[in-house]
Description:
Blueprint: E1 11-17, E2 38-42, H1 58-67, E3 72-74, E4 80-82, E5 85-90, E6 95-100, H2 114-125, H3 134-139, H4 145-149, E7 160-164, E8 167-171, H5 179-183, H6 193-199, E9 215-221, E10 225-230, E11 244-248, H7 253-261, E12 267-268, H8 276-283, E13 287-292, E14 294-300, H9 310-318, H10 322-330, H11 360-373, E15 383-389, H12 392-409, E16 412-418, H13 420-428, E17 434-440, H14 447-450, H15 467-479
Parallel strand pairs: 2-11, 15-16, 15-17
Antiparallel strand pairs: 1-12, 1-13, 3-4, 5-6, 6-8, 7-8, 9-10, 10-11, 14-17
Helix pairs in contact: 9-11
Amino acid sequence: MKKTIKNISLFTGIIFGSLTLSHAAIIPPGTQLAINQDIVLHNGSEPASLDVHKVESDVEFDIIHDFFSGLIDTGIDGKLNPDLAVSWETKDNKVWLFHLREGIKWSDGSPITAHDVVFSWRRLIDPQMASPYGSYIENMYITNAKDILAGKKKADALGVKALDDMTVEVTLEQPLSYFLQMVAHPVMVPISQKAVEKYGEKWTQPNVFVGSGPFKLAEWIVNEKVIGIRNPQYWDNAHTVINKVTYLAITSDTAVVNRYLAGEIDITKSIPSVSFNSLKTKLGSQVHISPKLGVYYYEFNTKKAPFNDIRVRQALNLALDKTIISDKVLGQGQKAAYNNTPPNTGGMNLKQPDYASLPLAKRIEKARQLLKEAGYNRNNPLKFNLLYNTSEDHKRIAIAVSSMWKKNLGADAVLQNQEWKTMLDTMHQSNFDLVRHAWIADYDHPASFLNNFVTNSSNNTSLYSNDIYDDLMQKAKTTNDMKYFQ
């Protein structure tokens, strides 16, 4: 997901345009503001949904962060700030109390209460909701979360309750050092119980939408744009500067750049890698490189051939020249990734795997041997489909990677392209061989990356399952000992 920017990462976002923020801001006295306080943003793909409990990526969470407030918010400096909760406390790091602000309201003017928080967290973990982030609350160690996800207990058994309209009590099964960081994630924002119960699946439609952030949904034209307008009921509306935000769904980076240069877009999320250097030279300070704590990778379907064989998975990994991909194919400051967790995540000195220091020729030699052992050769070459969502750079990377596999291993990767929402459905239906994936840390800790591969995690679309791995993850979270994260 988003928001942690403390570490140089394996994933670099390119921001193109002014750095005007669409959130509340303190304006220095005497500052001359533009008359028109509307902003147009490139948001990437079409959002899969704006239902907080049905989404799983920055495409949706970036909008949700503008339309909803959480109990806690993470500032651009990485610090935790009061949001709907004005304060919080604990005596034993297991029972937490969150005290809501007086007078906070939904965008329809109705009061936001602790009961909305309880309703929202129960809805998130309810197996009937089948949220992609359902496992998130389990990973917070909130009491009974594991049994609820397993269908052994009802959602109302979750260790969260409203002591009164303004106080939320959360009980953990064990202390968790990064619990508050997890509370600050957009998937944990409360939603209006009244609105959801009244409108059901239609509660995110513009004419009935109810939110709590600086903006509220005004219009949604599918595959074109989402429009948010200023929410006068927002608790910090006095410091909101922008009156209207338009989020454009454009998958062509070239088209985005052209519209930016034409003055139609104020901020973009990305620049075509082939144009980066020339645009940086031409536009100078309008181009910003924004480090993110994240990793870009390809995910195997580990339950079907050929990738149910660990030797095949290892061979494809070993045969890639990742520096060529980061420095030549992209060349925007990305770093080669040798595991799925950036090295300094959470301030931990995570070591790189042994193969990272091997010369490429040695890695390729080992990869060929592994494929041979798995039964693949010139007469029986490895063949599989490689799926990616629409993007010029995703396509460039897929072409480069498939060429390396062909040259180094004789493997044939058939490239397949789908739109973002379609690809998500394909992943959750396990109807793929190999798929483009990426993960931006939900919080600054290795567990944010590693939890995705725990057996039955709602984010585990690879279907990976290993009892030893699960046991190590349990010990790692219980002890917070760095050795278990290596």
